[in-house]
Amino acid sequence: MQLAVGTSRSISSLLSKVYQEMQLAVGTSRSILMSPYSHYALQSNKDAICPVRYALCQCVKGEGLVTVDSQGVLRAGPDTGSALLEVIAMETCGVNQTLLISVRVSPVWFVRLFSVSSLYSVGGGGLPAFPLGWTIRVRALCYDNLGQQFNAHNTLTHITTNR
Questions:
Q1: Which of 11, 16, 38, 57 is the most exposed place for a label (fewest CB within 10 A)?
Q2: Which helix (H) or strand (E) holds 52?
Q3: DSSP structure string for 65-111
Q4: What is the pLDDT of residue 92?
Q5: Domains in the chain, CATH or no CATH each
């Protein structure tokens, strides 16, 4: 609102509303990378506040590449390709927020394993063997041919002990 200079009219009150931008709770909010036959539960910061609707806008490979249910569970089929997912939050005050998410289904190209367990020795030197009964926790991360980490994958990993 603009007032001309020298006018005696005053502004009694201004009402402004601030809305929180809708975002995915985990991972990036603009793209999701999945392997075939995997599933990913979408969660946004609006799930507990207002109704959220999920819809597929288009699939590059056609129908069945990915599906999404009313709870926001995204499931990939056997094919690879890209799709566009639309997430709409319908707030009670009448404001709708839309988030467009690129979904890419790609095969796993390589797996990176690393230990998340800690093992310390006296003096910081190496150990000739692992202690008997020590539990090692291993984490596996999957990547595509471009080096991007998967948000959801269906890759089974097995560890076989030696000796």
A1: 16
A2: strand 52-59
A3: SEEE-TT-EEEE-SS-EEEEEEEEEE-TTS-EEEEEEEEEE----EE
A4: 80
A5: 31-105 (2.60.40.10)
- Cβ atoms of residues 111 and 149 within 8 Å: no
Identity of residue 60: V
What is this structure's pTM?
0.73
The encoded tokens of residue 130 equal 């692992």
Q: Which residue has the higher pLDDT, 1 or 18?
A: 18
Element (H, E) at 114: strand 110-115
In contact, 63 and 79? CB cutoff 8 Å: no
Residue whose token pair is 């075939």: 36
| Rounded Cα gap, residues 23 and 118, in angstroms | 34
Closest CA to 33 of 154, 162, 138, 129: 154
Region 42-55: mean pLDDT is 85
Beta-bridged to residue 59, according to DSSP, are 83
Model confidence pLDDT, tens digit, residues 129-152 = 878 888 888 888 999 999 999 988
